[in-house]
Amino acid sequence: MSGATFFWMGRSIPFQEGESIASALDAAGMVSFGPGVPPSQMRFFCGIGACQCCLVRVDGATREACLTAAAAGLEVEPAGGAHG
Amino acid sequence: MADPDVLIVGAGPAGLAAAVELAASGVSVELAEQRGTIGGAIYRQPISAATPVPQAAAAKARWRSLSAAFDESGVRVRHATVFLGIEADGQVLLDDRRSGGVVCLRPKVVILATGAVETVHPRPGWHLAGVTTAGGLQVMMKERGRAPEGRVILAGNGPLLIAVAAQMARLGNPPVAVVEAGDPFRRPAAGLGLLAFPGLLREAAGYVLDVKRHRVPWLRGTRLAAIEPQGEGFAVTLEDARGTRRMEVDRVALHDGIRPNDFGLPQVGGRGEGPLVLHAGDCREALGAPAAGADGHRAAREAIRHLGADRTANSREGRDIARYRKAQALLARLFAPLPEALPFENLPDETLLCRCEGRTVGDLRALCEMPDRLTGREVKHNGRFAMGACQGRFCAANTAVLMARMRPEAPAPTPVDLTGRRWPARPVSIGALMQAAPENTDQDKEMTDEVHK
Protein backbone atom coordinates (compact mmCIF):
# COMPACT_ATOMS: atom_id res chain seq x y z
CA MET A 1 0.00 0.00 0.00
CA SER A 2 1.46 3.34 -1.01
CA GLY A 3 -0.66 5.26 1.47
CA ALA A 4 -1.53 7.79 -1.24
CA THR A 5 -5.14 8.90 -1.67
CA PHE A 6 -7.27 11.01 -4.00
CA PHE A 7 -10.63 12.58 -3.23
CA TRP A 8 -13.98 11.24 -4.47
CA MET A 9 -16.68 13.78 -3.58
CA GLY A 10 -14.48 14.84 -0.68
CA ARG A 11 -13.86 11.31 0.60
CA SER A 12 -10.29 9.92 0.66
CA ILE A 13 -9.84 6.94 -1.67
CA PRO A 14 -6.63 4.91 -1.36
CA PHE A 15 -4.93 3.69 -4.55
CA GLN A 16 -1.81 1.87 -5.63
CA GLU A 17 0.89 3.27 -7.90
CA GLY A 18 -0.30 3.05 -11.52
CA GLU A 19 -3.89 2.13 -10.68
CA SER A 20 -6.73 3.72 -12.66
CA ILE A 21 -9.31 5.91 -10.90
CA ALA A 22 -12.01 3.38 -11.89
CA SER A 23 -10.14 0.49 -10.29
CA ALA A 24 -9.51 2.42 -7.07
CA LEU A 25 -13.16 3.53 -6.84
CA ASP A 26 -14.31 -0.05 -7.45
CA ALA A 27 -11.96 -1.37 -4.77
CA ALA A 28 -13.42 1.21 -2.37
CA GLY A 29 -16.91 -0.17 -3.06
CA MET A 30 -18.15 2.62 -5.35
CA VAL A 31 -20.39 0.86 -7.87
CA SER A 32 -22.11 4.03 -9.07
CA PHE A 33 -19.98 6.98 -10.23
CA GLY A 34 -22.93 9.38 -9.98
CA PRO A 35 -26.06 10.16 -12.02
CA GLY A 36 -26.09 9.58 -15.79
CA VAL A 37 -28.78 10.03 -18.41
CA PRO A 38 -31.89 8.47 -16.79
CA PRO A 39 -32.45 5.66 -16.08
CA SER A 40 -28.68 4.96 -16.09
CA GLN A 41 -25.95 5.87 -13.67
CA MET A 42 -22.31 6.55 -14.48
CA ARG A 43 -20.15 3.53 -13.69
CA PHE A 44 -17.41 1.20 -14.88
CA PHE A 45 -18.48 -0.89 -17.89
CA CYS A 46 -16.07 -1.61 -20.79
CA GLY A 47 -12.67 -0.78 -19.25
CA ILE A 48 -11.17 0.47 -22.54
CA GLY A 49 -12.47 4.01 -22.95
CA ALA A 50 -15.10 3.04 -25.54
CA CYS A 51 -18.44 3.22 -23.69
CA GLN A 52 -17.99 6.61 -21.93
CA CYS A 53 -19.98 5.24 -18.97
CA CYS A 54 -17.26 5.99 -16.41
CA LEU A 55 -16.78 9.69 -17.19
CA VAL A 56 -15.85 11.67 -14.08
CA ARG A 57 -14.43 15.13 -13.45
CA VAL A 58 -10.77 15.01 -12.57
CA ASP A 59 -9.59 18.37 -11.25
CA GLY A 60 -12.37 19.89 -13.37
CA ALA A 61 -11.66 18.06 -16.66
CA THR A 62 -14.02 15.34 -17.94
CA ARG A 63 -12.10 12.07 -18.19
CA GLU A 64 -12.75 8.32 -18.47
CA ALA A 65 -12.05 6.89 -15.00
CA CYS A 66 -10.87 3.63 -16.62
CA LEU A 67 -8.13 5.39 -18.65
CA THR A 68 -6.96 7.93 -16.10
CA ALA A 69 -4.29 7.01 -13.57
CA ALA A 70 -5.01 7.96 -9.97
CA ALA A 71 -2.64 10.50 -8.44
CA ALA A 72 -2.30 11.81 -4.90
CA GLY A 73 -4.59 14.71 -4.09
CA LEU A 74 -6.71 14.63 -7.28
CA GLU A 75 -10.23 16.00 -6.80
CA VAL A 76 -12.55 13.54 -8.53
CA GLU A 77 -16.27 14.32 -8.81
CA PRO A 78 -19.25 12.87 -10.69
CA ALA A 79 -19.40 14.15 -14.28
CA GLY A 80 -23.04 15.15 -13.91
CA GLY A 81 -25.84 13.93 -16.17
CA ALA A 82 -24.82 16.23 -19.01
CA HIS A 83 -21.30 14.72 -19.23
CA GLY A 84 -19.77 18.18 -19.12
CA MET B 1 10.77 18.26 -33.38
CA ALA B 2 9.66 17.37 -36.92
CA ASP B 3 6.38 15.59 -37.66
CA PRO B 4 6.85 11.83 -37.89
CA ASP B 5 6.41 10.17 -41.30
CA VAL B 6 4.07 7.64 -39.71
CA LEU B 7 1.72 8.11 -36.77
CA ILE B 8 0.31 4.95 -35.19
CA VAL B 9 -2.79 5.15 -32.98
CA GLY B 10 -3.07 2.46 -30.31
CA ALA B 11 -0.29 0.60 -28.47
CA GLY B 12 -1.86 -2.86 -28.58
CA PRO B 13 -0.39 -5.81 -30.46
CA ALA B 14 -1.07 -4.34 -33.95
CA GLY B 15 0.27 -0.86 -33.18
CA LEU B 16 3.38 -2.12 -31.40
CA ALA B 17 4.19 -4.64 -34.17
CA ALA B 18 3.81 -1.91 -36.81
CA ALA B 19 6.05 0.45 -34.79
CA VAL B 20 8.78 -2.18 -34.46
CA GLU B 21 8.74 -2.94 -38.19
CA LEU B 22 8.77 0.75 -39.21
CA ALA B 23 11.58 1.68 -36.83
CA ALA B 24 13.64 -1.27 -38.08
CA SER B 25 13.24 0.11 -41.63
CA GLY B 26 14.50 3.51 -40.54
CA VAL B 27 11.13 5.26 -40.90
CA SER B 28 10.38 8.04 -38.41
CA VAL B 29 7.38 6.90 -36.38
CA GLU B 30 5.42 7.93 -33.28
CA LEU B 31 2.70 6.16 -31.35
CA ALA B 32 -0.34 7.76 -29.69
CA GLU B 33 -1.86 5.74 -26.84
CA GLN B 34 -4.89 6.67 -24.72
CA ARG B 35 -3.55 5.08 -21.52
CA GLY B 36 -0.39 5.60 -19.51
CA THR B 37 0.80 2.08 -20.34
CA ILE B 38 1.28 0.04 -23.50
CA GLY B 39 -0.10 -3.40 -24.37
CA GLY B 40 -3.75 -2.67 -25.20
CA ALA B 41 -6.58 -4.54 -23.51
CA ILE B 42 -5.18 -7.96 -24.29
CA TYR B 43 -1.77 -7.28 -22.72
CA ARG B 44 -2.98 -4.90 -19.99
CA GLN B 45 -0.09 -4.77 -17.53
CA PRO B 46 -0.53 -5.21 -13.77
CA ILE B 47 0.18 -2.21 -11.55
CA SER B 48 3.54 -2.51 -9.83
CA ALA B 49 2.12 -3.85 -6.56
CA ALA B 50 -0.01 -6.55 -8.25
CA THR B 51 0.62 -10.18 -9.18
CA PRO B 52 0.11 -10.79 -12.90
CA VAL B 53 -3.08 -12.65 -13.86
CA PRO B 54 -2.30 -16.26 -14.88
CA GLN B 55 -2.11 -16.39 -18.69
CA ALA B 56 -1.60 -19.10 -21.28
CA ALA B 57 2.13 -19.75 -21.89
CA ALA B 58 1.88 -18.84 -25.59
CA ALA B 59 0.29 -15.45 -24.81
CA LYS B 60 2.97 -14.66 -22.23
CA ALA B 61 5.72 -15.54 -24.72
CA ARG B 62 4.11 -13.32 -27.41
CA TRP B 63 4.03 -10.33 -25.05
CA ARG B 64 7.61 -10.86 -23.86
CA SER B 65 9.01 -10.83 -27.38
CA LEU B 66 6.81 -7.95 -28.60
CA SER B 67 7.47 -5.68 -25.62
CA ALA B 68 11.22 -6.38 -25.74
CA ALA B 69 11.34 -5.54 -29.46
CA PHE B 70 9.32 -2.37 -28.85
CA ASP B 71 11.56 -1.22 -25.97
CA GLU B 72 14.55 -1.71 -28.24
CA SER B 73 12.94 0.27 -31.10
CA GLY B 74 13.05 3.52 -29.09
CA VAL B 75 9.78 4.66 -30.71
CA ARG B 76 8.27 7.67 -28.92
CA VAL B 77 4.89 7.09 -27.27
CA ARG B 78 2.52 9.99 -26.65
CA HIS B 79 0.64 8.64 -23.63
CA ALA B 80 -2.81 9.79 -22.47
CA THR B 81 -3.42 10.89 -26.06
CA VAL B 82 -6.65 10.15 -27.94
CA PHE B 83 -7.07 10.21 -31.74
CA LEU B 84 -9.88 12.60 -32.74
CA GLY B 85 -9.74 12.55 -36.52
CA ILE B 86 -8.29 14.04 -39.69
CA GLU B 87 -9.34 17.52 -40.72
CA ALA B 88 -10.32 18.27 -44.33
CA ASP B 89 -6.94 19.95 -44.84
CA GLY B 90 -5.11 16.75 -43.82
CA GLN B 91 -4.15 17.69 -40.26
CA VAL B 92 -4.32 14.84 -37.75
CA LEU B 93 -5.95 15.93 -34.48
CA LEU B 94 -4.94 14.34 -31.17
CA ASP B 95 -6.39 15.14 -27.75
CA ASP B 96 -3.44 15.35 -25.36
CA ARG B 97 -5.08 14.72 -22.00
CA ARG B 98 -1.96 15.70 -20.06
CA SER B 99 -1.62 19.19 -21.54
CA GLY B 100 -5.40 19.55 -21.93
CA GLY B 101 -5.01 20.78 -25.53
CA VAL B 102 -5.48 19.35 -29.01
CA VAL B 103 -2.28 18.66 -30.95
CA CYS B 104 -2.16 18.85 -34.77
CA LEU B 105 0.33 16.72 -36.72
CA ARG B 106 1.02 16.20 -40.43
CA PRO B 107 2.33 12.67 -40.87
CA LYS B 108 2.45 11.06 -44.33
CA VAL B 109 0.78 7.87 -43.10
CA VAL B 110 -1.60 7.19 -40.19
CA ILE B 111 -1.98 3.60 -39.02
CA LEU B 112 -5.13 3.24 -36.90
CA ALA B 113 -4.89 0.29 -34.53
CA THR B 114 -7.71 1.02 -32.08
CA GLY B 115 -8.57 -2.63 -31.41
CA ALA B 116 -11.97 -4.17 -30.82
CA VAL B 117 -15.05 -3.44 -28.73
CA GLU B 118 -17.25 -6.05 -27.17
CA THR B 119 -20.72 -6.73 -28.45
CA VAL B 120 -23.32 -6.65 -25.67
CA HIS B 121 -26.86 -7.50 -26.72
CA PRO B 122 -29.70 -5.62 -25.03
CA ARG B 123 -31.41 -7.34 -22.11
CA PRO B 124 -33.64 -5.72 -19.48
CA GLY B 125 -31.32 -4.34 -16.79
CA TRP B 126 -28.04 -4.49 -18.78
CA HIS B 127 -27.52 -0.77 -18.07
CA LEU B 128 -27.49 -1.06 -14.25
CA ALA B 129 -24.41 -0.04 -12.25
CA GLY B 130 -22.66 -3.28 -11.25
CA VAL B 131 -23.19 -4.82 -14.70
CA THR B 132 -20.01 -4.64 -16.81
CA THR B 133 -18.66 -6.28 -19.92
CA ALA B 134 -16.71 -9.50 -19.34
CA GLY B 135 -13.72 -7.85 -21.02
CA GLY B 136 -14.06 -4.85 -18.68
CA LEU B 137 -14.07 -7.16 -15.68
CA GLN B 138 -11.03 -8.92 -17.16
CA VAL B 139 -8.92 -5.78 -17.76
CA MET B 140 -9.62 -4.62 -14.21
CA MET B 141 -8.54 -8.05 -12.97
CA LYS B 142 -5.35 -7.86 -15.07
CA GLU B 143 -4.62 -4.35 -13.76
CA ARG B 144 -5.13 -5.24 -10.13
CA GLY B 145 -4.04 -8.90 -10.07
CA ARG B 146 -7.12 -9.70 -7.98
CA ALA B 147 -10.42 -11.35 -8.87
CA PRO B 148 -13.53 -9.20 -8.44
CA GLU B 149 -15.24 -9.87 -5.12
CA GLY B 150 -18.65 -11.37 -4.42
CA ARG B 151 -20.88 -13.66 -6.46
CA VAL B 152 -20.09 -12.95 -10.12
CA ILE B 153 -22.03 -14.39 -13.05
CA LEU B 154 -20.53 -14.34 -16.57
CA ALA B 155 -23.07 -14.48 -19.39
CA GLY B 156 -23.42 -14.22 -23.15
CA ASN B 157 -21.65 -15.97 -25.95
CA GLY B 158 -18.17 -17.03 -26.98
CA PRO B 159 -14.83 -18.35 -25.74
CA LEU B 160 -13.83 -15.23 -23.77
CA LEU B 161 -16.36 -16.07 -21.02
CA ILE B 162 -14.68 -19.36 -20.20
CA ALA B 163 -11.22 -17.74 -20.30
CA VAL B 164 -12.30 -15.06 -17.80
CA ALA B 165 -13.92 -17.74 -15.61
CA ALA B 166 -10.66 -19.72 -15.53
CA GLN B 167 -8.63 -16.61 -14.63
CA MET B 168 -11.06 -15.74 -11.83
CA ALA B 169 -10.85 -19.30 -10.51
CA ARG B 170 -7.03 -19.21 -10.51
CA LEU B 171 -7.18 -15.93 -8.56
CA GLY B 172 -9.41 -17.48 -5.90
CA ASN B 173 -12.96 -16.33 -6.72
CA PRO B 174 -14.51 -18.50 -9.45
CA PRO B 175 -17.77 -17.15 -10.92
CA VAL B 176 -21.01 -18.68 -9.63
CA ALA B 177 -21.86 -19.71 -13.22
CA VAL B 178 -20.93 -19.19 -16.86
CA VAL B 179 -24.04 -18.75 -19.01
CA GLU B 180 -23.34 -19.61 -22.65
CA ALA B 181 -25.82 -19.26 -25.55
CA GLY B 182 -23.99 -21.87 -27.62
CA ASP B 183 -22.91 -25.40 -26.85
CA PRO B 184 -19.50 -26.41 -28.25
CA PHE B 185 -20.12 -30.04 -27.21
CA ARG B 186 -23.02 -30.15 -29.66
CA ARG B 187 -20.94 -28.88 -32.60
CA PRO B 188 -18.63 -31.84 -33.24
CA ALA B 189 -17.77 -30.86 -36.83
CA ALA B 190 -16.43 -27.46 -35.78
CA GLY B 191 -14.65 -29.12 -32.84
CA LEU B 192 -12.87 -31.53 -35.19
CA GLY B 193 -11.87 -28.61 -37.43
CA LEU B 194 -10.07 -27.05 -34.47
CA LEU B 195 -7.68 -30.03 -34.42
CA ALA B 196 -5.83 -28.11 -37.15
CA PHE B 197 -5.08 -25.41 -34.54
CA PRO B 198 -3.35 -27.28 -31.69
CA GLY B 199 -2.20 -24.10 -29.92
CA LEU B 200 -5.73 -22.75 -29.71
CA LEU B 201 -7.10 -26.12 -28.65
CA ARG B 202 -4.50 -26.43 -25.89
CA GLU B 203 -5.36 -22.97 -24.55
CA ALA B 204 -9.12 -23.68 -24.67
CA ALA B 205 -8.75 -27.10 -23.02
CA GLY B 206 -6.73 -25.48 -20.21
CA TYR B 207 -9.53 -23.00 -19.50
CA VAL B 208 -12.29 -25.64 -19.65
CA LEU B 209 -10.36 -27.96 -17.30
CA ASP B 210 -9.75 -25.15 -14.80
CA VAL B 211 -13.43 -24.24 -14.81
CA LYS B 212 -14.39 -27.91 -14.31
CA ARG B 213 -11.84 -28.37 -11.52
CA HIS B 214 -13.39 -25.45 -9.61
CA ARG B 215 -16.88 -26.88 -10.24
CA VAL B 216 -18.10 -23.74 -11.99
CA PRO B 217 -21.44 -24.57 -13.68
CA TRP B 218 -21.05 -24.00 -17.44
CA LEU B 219 -24.69 -23.51 -18.48
CA ARG B 220 -24.64 -24.06 -22.25
CA GLY B 221 -27.60 -23.42 -24.52
CA THR B 222 -28.75 -20.87 -21.95
CA ARG B 223 -29.35 -17.14 -22.07
CA LEU B 224 -29.38 -14.52 -19.38
CA ALA B 225 -32.71 -12.93 -20.27
CA ALA B 226 -33.07 -10.20 -17.62
CA ILE B 227 -31.34 -8.46 -14.71
CA GLU B 228 -33.24 -6.83 -11.82
CA PRO B 229 -31.83 -5.00 -8.82
CA GLN B 230 -32.22 -7.00 -5.62
CA GLY B 231 -30.81 -5.79 -2.31
CA GLU B 232 -27.19 -4.75 -2.88
CA GLY B 233 -26.99 -7.06 -5.93
CA PHE B 234 -29.14 -8.50 -8.69
CA ALA B 235 -31.64 -11.25 -9.47
CA VAL B 236 -30.97 -12.63 -12.95
CA THR B 237 -33.36 -14.67 -15.08
CA LEU B 238 -31.87 -17.61 -16.99
CA GLU B 239 -33.70 -19.36 -19.84
CA ASP B 240 -32.93 -22.63 -21.58
CA ALA B 241 -34.85 -25.38 -23.41
CA ARG B 242 -36.16 -26.70 -20.07
CA GLY B 243 -37.52 -23.43 -18.76
CA THR B 244 -36.74 -20.39 -16.64
CA ARG B 245 -34.96 -19.99 -13.32
CA ARG B 246 -33.58 -17.16 -11.21
CA MET B 247 -30.26 -16.65 -9.44
CA GLU B 248 -29.03 -14.05 -6.99
CA VAL B 249 -25.63 -12.50 -7.71
CA ASP B 250 -23.56 -9.44 -6.77
CA ARG B 251 -22.10 -8.64 -10.19
CA VAL B 252 -22.98 -9.46 -13.78
CA ALA B 253 -20.45 -9.48 -16.64
CA LEU B 254 -21.85 -9.66 -20.18
CA HIS B 255 -20.12 -10.50 -23.46
CA ASP B 256 -21.65 -11.47 -26.82
CA GLY B 257 -18.53 -11.38 -28.98
CA ILE B 258 -16.17 -8.71 -30.31
CA ARG B 259 -16.21 -6.44 -33.35
CA PRO B 260 -13.84 -3.85 -34.84
CA ASN B 261 -13.62 -0.56 -32.93
CA ASP B 262 -13.78 1.39 -36.19
CA PHE B 263 -16.47 3.87 -35.12
CA GLY B 264 -15.95 7.32 -36.59
CA LEU B 265 -12.55 6.39 -38.03
CA PRO B 266 -11.53 7.75 -41.44
CA GLN B 267 -11.65 5.02 -44.07
CA VAL B 268 -8.59 3.33 -45.56
CA GLY B 269 -6.94 5.25 -48.39
CA GLY B 270 -5.46 8.64 -49.22
CA ARG B 271 -7.45 11.82 -49.78
CA GLY B 272 -6.21 15.14 -51.16
CA GLU B 273 -3.43 16.59 -49.07
CA GLY B 274 -4.15 14.23 -46.20
CA PRO B 275 -2.11 11.28 -45.06
CA LEU B 276 -2.57 7.73 -46.31
CA VAL B 277 -4.87 6.02 -43.77
CA LEU B 278 -4.39 2.35 -42.92
CA HIS B 279 -6.30 0.21 -40.42
CA ALA B 280 -4.44 -2.59 -38.62
CA GLY B 281 -5.38 -5.39 -36.25
CA ASP B 282 -8.78 -5.90 -34.63
CA CYS B 283 -10.07 -2.48 -35.78
CA ARG B 284 -9.75 -3.77 -39.38
CA GLU B 285 -10.91 -7.33 -38.75
CA ALA B 286 -11.44 -8.67 -35.21
CA LEU B 287 -9.38 -11.88 -35.26
CA GLY B 288 -7.57 -11.64 -31.91
CA ALA B 289 -4.07 -10.73 -30.71
CA PRO B 290 -1.83 -13.05 -32.78
CA ALA B 291 -3.59 -12.00 -36.00
CA ALA B 292 -3.37 -8.34 -34.91
CA GLY B 293 0.41 -8.64 -34.57
CA ALA B 294 0.70 -10.07 -38.06
CA ASP B 295 -1.61 -7.38 -39.40
CA GLY B 296 0.52 -4.67 -37.77
CA HIS B 297 3.52 -5.92 -39.76
CA ARG B 298 1.41 -5.97 -42.92
CA ALA B 299 0.28 -2.37 -42.39
CA ALA B 300 3.85 -1.27 -41.64
CA ARG B 301 5.03 -2.73 -44.92
CA GLU B 302 2.24 -0.97 -46.79
CA ALA B 303 3.33 2.29 -45.16
CA ILE B 304 6.94 1.64 -46.12
CA ARG B 305 5.92 0.98 -49.73
CA HIS B 306 3.94 4.25 -49.74
CA LEU B 307 6.97 6.14 -48.46
CA GLY B 308 9.09 4.62 -51.23
CA ALA B 309 11.38 2.80 -48.85
CA ASP B 310 10.32 -0.73 -49.77
CA ARG B 311 12.99 -3.36 -50.05
CA THR B 312 11.27 -6.67 -49.49
CA ALA B 313 7.99 -8.17 -50.52
CA ASN B 314 6.66 -10.70 -48.08
CA SER B 315 3.34 -12.45 -48.07
CA ARG B 316 3.87 -14.43 -44.87
CA GLU B 317 1.54 -12.14 -42.88
CA GLY B 318 -1.21 -12.65 -45.47
CA ARG B 319 -1.00 -16.41 -45.00
CA ASP B 320 -0.89 -16.10 -41.20
CA ILE B 321 -3.94 -13.83 -41.15
CA ALA B 322 -5.89 -16.20 -43.41
CA ARG B 323 -5.13 -19.00 -40.94
CA TYR B 324 -6.32 -16.93 -37.94
CA ARG B 325 -9.46 -16.02 -39.91
CA LYS B 326 -10.18 -19.73 -40.39
CA ALA B 327 -9.66 -20.42 -36.68
CA GLN B 328 -12.05 -17.59 -35.69
CA ALA B 329 -14.68 -18.85 -38.16
CA LEU B 330 -14.44 -22.31 -36.56
CA LEU B 331 -14.80 -20.82 -33.07
CA ALA B 332 -17.86 -18.87 -34.22
CA ARG B 333 -19.43 -22.12 -35.49
CA LEU B 334 -18.44 -23.97 -32.33
CA PHE B 335 -20.12 -21.33 -30.15
CA ALA B 336 -23.11 -20.61 -32.43
CA PRO B 337 -26.09 -19.84 -30.13
CA LEU B 338 -28.66 -22.63 -29.84
CA PRO B 339 -32.21 -21.79 -30.98
CA GLU B 340 -33.42 -21.56 -27.38
CA ALA B 341 -30.78 -18.98 -26.47
CA LEU B 342 -30.93 -16.54 -29.41
CA PRO B 343 -30.47 -12.82 -28.66
CA PHE B 344 -33.10 -10.12 -29.37
CA GLU B 345 -36.04 -12.49 -28.68
CA ASN B 346 -39.03 -11.24 -26.65
CA LEU B 347 -37.41 -7.95 -25.60
CA PRO B 348 -39.86 -5.91 -23.48
CA ASP B 349 -40.42 -2.37 -24.83
CA GLU B 350 -38.86 -0.79 -21.73
CA THR B 351 -35.48 -2.48 -22.41
CA LEU B 352 -32.83 0.20 -22.78
CA LEU B 353 -31.18 0.11 -26.20
CA CYS B 354 -29.13 3.31 -26.33
CA ARG B 355 -27.85 3.98 -22.85
CA CYS B 356 -26.09 7.30 -23.50
CA GLU B 357 -29.39 8.90 -24.56
CA GLY B 358 -31.77 6.73 -22.52
CA ARG B 359 -33.63 5.33 -25.56
CA THR B 360 -35.59 2.09 -25.36
CA VAL B 361 -36.74 -0.74 -27.63
CA GLY B 362 -40.23 0.79 -27.43
CA ASP B 363 -38.90 4.18 -28.62
CA LEU B 364 -37.36 2.44 -31.65
CA ARG B 365 -40.56 0.49 -32.31
CA ALA B 366 -42.57 3.75 -32.37
CA LEU B 367 -40.15 5.19 -34.96
CA CYS B 368 -40.27 2.03 -37.07
CA GLU B 369 -44.08 2.03 -37.07
CA MET B 370 -44.26 5.53 -38.57
CA PRO B 371 -45.77 5.58 -42.08
CA ASP B 372 -42.59 7.09 -43.58
CA ARG B 373 -39.78 4.54 -43.55
CA LEU B 374 -36.94 6.18 -41.66
CA THR B 375 -33.36 5.47 -42.73
CA GLY B 376 -30.67 4.62 -40.16
CA ARG B 377 -29.54 8.22 -40.30
CA GLU B 378 -33.05 9.52 -39.62
CA VAL B 379 -33.44 7.10 -36.71
CA LYS B 380 -30.31 8.72 -35.29
CA HIS B 381 -31.47 12.28 -35.90
CA ASN B 382 -35.13 11.81 -34.90
CA GLY B 383 -34.67 9.18 -32.20
CA ARG B 384 -31.22 10.03 -30.79
CA PHE B 385 -30.07 6.41 -31.20
CA ALA B 386 -26.26 6.22 -31.63
CA MET B 387 -26.02 9.96 -30.99
CA GLY B 388 -24.62 9.91 -27.46
CA ALA B 389 -21.16 9.93 -25.93
CA CYS B 390 -20.21 6.38 -26.93
CA GLN B 391 -21.04 7.34 -30.52
CA GLY B 392 -22.92 4.14 -31.19
CA ARG B 393 -20.19 1.76 -30.09
CA PHE B 394 -22.64 -0.13 -27.88
CA CYS B 395 -26.01 0.48 -29.57
CA ALA B 396 -25.61 1.08 -33.33
CA ALA B 397 -25.27 -2.60 -34.32
CA ASN B 398 -28.07 -3.67 -31.95
CA THR B 399 -30.34 -0.88 -33.22
CA ALA B 400 -29.63 -1.88 -36.84
CA VAL B 401 -30.52 -5.53 -36.09
CA LEU B 402 -33.75 -4.55 -34.33
CA MET B 403 -34.74 -2.14 -37.14
CA ALA B 404 -34.38 -5.00 -39.63
CA ARG B 405 -36.52 -7.24 -37.41
CA MET B 406 -39.20 -4.58 -36.86
CA ARG B 407 -39.62 -3.91 -40.61
CA PRO B 408 -38.47 -7.00 -42.45
CA GLU B 409 -39.72 -5.66 -45.81
CA ALA B 410 -37.35 -2.63 -45.80
CA PRO B 411 -33.64 -2.78 -46.71
CA ALA B 412 -31.62 -3.73 -43.60
CA PRO B 413 -29.62 -0.78 -42.21
CA THR B 414 -25.94 -1.12 -41.23
CA PRO B 415 -24.39 0.27 -38.03
CA VAL B 416 -22.55 2.90 -40.15
CA ASP B 417 -25.92 4.08 -41.56
CA LEU B 418 -26.68 5.12 -37.99
CA THR B 419 -23.33 6.43 -36.81
CA GLY B 420 -21.96 8.06 -39.96
CA ARG B 421 -18.21 8.66 -40.23
CA ARG B 422 -16.90 11.99 -39.05
CA TRP B 423 -14.50 13.33 -36.48
CA PRO B 424 -14.19 13.65 -33.53
CA ALA B 425 -13.92 9.87 -33.14
CA ARG B 426 -14.12 10.51 -29.39
CA PRO B 427 -15.74 13.30 -27.36
CA VAL B 428 -13.41 16.27 -26.80
CA SER B 429 -13.95 19.42 -24.81
CA ILE B 430 -14.49 22.71 -26.67
CA GLY B 431 -11.72 24.14 -24.49
CA ALA B 432 -9.20 21.60 -25.76
CA LEU B 433 -10.24 22.24 -29.38
CA MET B 434 -9.88 26.00 -28.88
CA GLN B 435 -6.28 25.39 -27.90
CA ALA B 436 -5.62 23.23 -30.99
CA ALA B 437 -2.15 24.05 -32.22
CA PRO B 438 0.18 22.66 -34.82
CA GLU B 439 3.18 21.36 -32.95
CA ASN B 440 5.82 21.79 -35.60
CA THR B 441 4.85 24.45 -38.13
CA ASP B 442 7.13 26.75 -40.08
CA GLN B 443 5.04 29.64 -38.76
CA ASP B 444 6.24 28.81 -35.28
CA LYS B 445 9.80 28.98 -36.54
CA GLU B 446 9.18 32.25 -38.35
CA MET B 447 7.70 33.75 -35.24
CA THR B 448 10.68 32.57 -33.22
CA ASP B 449 12.96 34.03 -35.88
CA GLU B 450 11.09 37.34 -35.61
CA VAL B 451 11.66 37.42 -31.90
CA HIS B 452 15.35 36.79 -32.33
CA LYS B 453 15.81 39.50 -34.98
From TrEMBL, chain A:
GO terms for molecular function: iron-sulfur cluster binding; oxidoreductase activity. Pfam families: Fer2_4 (PF13510). The keyword DNA repair does not apply. The keyword Ion transport does not apply. PROSITE patterns: 2FE2S_FER_2. SUPFAM superfamilies: 2Fe-2S ferredoxin-like. Residues 1-82 form the 2Fe-2S ferredoxin-type domain. InterPro entries: 2Fe-2S-bd_N (IPR042204), 2Fe-2S_ferredoxin-like_sf (IPR036010), 2Fe-2S_ferredoxin-type (IPR001041). Keywords: Oxidoreductase. This is Ferredoxin. It comes from Nitratireductor indicus C115.
From TrEMBL, chain B:
SUPFAM superfamilies: FAD/NAD(P)-binding domain. It comes from the Bacteria. Coiled coil: none annotated. Pfam families: Pyr_redox_2 (PF07992). Residues 5-265 form the FAD/NAD(P)-binding domain. PANTHER family: ANAEROBIC GLYCEROL-3-PHOSPHATE DEHYDROGENASE SUBUNIT B (PTHR42949). This is BFD (2Fe-2S)-binding domain-containing protein. It comes from Nitratireductor indicus C115.
